[in-house]
Specification:
mainly alpha; about 180 residues; binds zinc ion; transmembrane; about 10% strand; GRF-type domain-containing protein; coiled coil; single chain; rod-shaped; 3 strands; 3-stranded antiparallel sheet; metal-binding
Length: about 180
């Protein structure tokens, strides 16, 4: 544990000296510009520092925050706000919050989709009812048509018998005239 802490301290020292050297090499104007650009405003786990360097994840070995994970720019530290320093648990909370927001959005979208689906289903159901009504109306018409056909057949039969009766009367009339 002590070895780790020593290693961490040395690493910090190396990075800090590196950052000092890095900053010294810049012109005053560039320094001012970069000071404005630096500091991470993004949410969630950071990937890059504003200075363009990829951030690293480390474990804190300090007495105030022992074992606490953090992301930082290799050129910065907790007290140097010109480079990125972010506690991983805080990033995690942001990630969870953003994820929850996304889930809420998905839930809202899915409920809207479900409502649309329900409307579609009810429309389909009413269409099916209309189709069934149409079918029953058509079958009613068919029955009526069959009834008409039967009536026409009956009328035809009546006409035939009437015709026979007329023929009989005429024949009888003629026979009466011939033989009487
Ligand atoms: Zn940086």
């Amino acid at each position: 544990m002590d070895n780790h802490y020593f290693f961490f301290q040395t690493l910090c020292l190396i990075f800090y000296t590196g950052s000092l050297r890095f900053q010294k090499n810049r012109t005053k104007k560039n320094k001012e510009e970069n000071r404005d650009d630096m500091g991470d405003n993004g949410r969630g786990f950071p990937t890059y520092c504003r200075c363009g360097t990829r951030v690293i994840r480390l474990t804190s070995k300090t007495i105030t925050n022992p074992g606490r994970l953090f992301h930082k720019c290799p050129y910065g530290d907790e007290n140097n706000r010109h480079h990125l320093f972010k506690w991983t648990d805080e990033s995690m909370v942001e990630e969870i919050e953003d994820m929850k927001q996304k889930f809420d959005e998905i839930e809202r979208a899915s409920s809207t989709f479900e409502k649309g689906l329900q409307v579609c289903e009810s429309e389909m159901e009413s269409l099916a009812i209309e189709t069934r009504t149409c079918c029953s109306v058509v079958s009613g018409y068919e029955k009526e048509l069959r009834g008409f056909e039967k009536e026409i057949e009956d009328v035809k039969m009546e006409l035939k018998s009437l015709k026979n009766m007329v023929v009989c009367v005429v024949v009888f009339g003629l026979l009466y005239k011939l033989f009487m």
